[in-house]
Design brief:
This protein is α/β, with parallel strands linked by helices and 147 residues long. It is built from five helices and five strands; from the N terminus they run H-E-H-E-E-H-E-H-E-H. Helix 1 packs antiparallel against helix 5.
Length: 147
């Protein structure tokens, strides 16, 4: 294994960047994700940070049931995140569409559109559950994620 590959793998394990995409959620999960960045939970001290560009992200965090309007953006963002990457489904909506199931405007759940690596259950999930899900995603990323 080359030295550069080892350095890249180490940096992904120790400093993962997240790109968050709301795919039609009620914002409950989004609020809890932002709570992870507050001083109480402070995930940034672990090297985890939200990134504004999918081209620089390692992990995609998706909230919401995936609506017809957000599907194209979701697929575009997924294509822009460099390999290896990990997809985290945040909350009940990306996993099952929750109360939005059966709506004509919903095209989810998320695993019909993208390969999901980690599910964080809850409506909305608590920040400690989100952090545990991100830790699981980091472990997958260190192993090479999925290509």
């Amino acid at each position: 294994m080359r030295l550069i590959d080892s350095l890249v793998r180490t940096s992904r394990r120790r400093s993962p960047w997240l790109f968050h995409l709301n795919a039609g959620s009620c914002n409950g999960c989004d609020i809890e994700l932002v709570a992870c960045l507050t001083p109480r939970y402070d995930v940034e001290q672990l090297g985890i940070r939200l990134e504004g560009s999918p081209r620089h992200a390692d992990i995609i965090v998706v909230s919401g049931p995936v609506t017809r309007t957000t599907r194209a953006a979701l697929e575009t963002v997924y294509a822009q995140v460099p390999d290896p990457k990990v997809v985290v489904a945040l909350g009940s909506c990306p996993a099952s569409c929750n109360v939005f199931a059966g709506s004509p405007t919903v095209e989810g759940p998320l695993d019909r559109i993208l390969p999901v690596d980690v599910y964080v259950p809850g409506c909305p999930p608590r920040p400690d559950a989100i952090i545990a899900g991100i830790a699981e995603a980091i472990a997958l990323l260190a192993e090479g994620g999925h290509a």
